[in-house]
Design goal:
69 residues, mainly alpha, single chain, 2 helices
């Protein structure tokens, strides 16, 4: 299926907004596990987290029950 640059950018913006929303929700529940600032030298983790992001799977699904609030 053909896709224009504008469509691609719109899709990426949507995915980034979904990532941001889910990440902030996880931060509210588990601030120690979902920091809002990466330390110097770890900035690349944002891209790693984003590339692994699947909107259908809750980001905190892998947190063990003992680690949950």
């Amino acid at each position: 299926m053909a896709q224009s640059l504008d469509e691609f950018i719109a899709d990426m913006k949507t995915q980034m907004e979904q990532f941001s929303s889910q990440y902030r929700e996880c931060h509210a529940r588990h601030p120690e596990m979902f920091p809002l600032t990466m330390e110097t030298g770890n900035e690349g983790l944002w891209m790693e987290f984003f590339l692994e992001f699947d909107p259908a799977v809750p980001m905190d699904a892998s947190i063990q029950p003992s680690e949950r609030e």
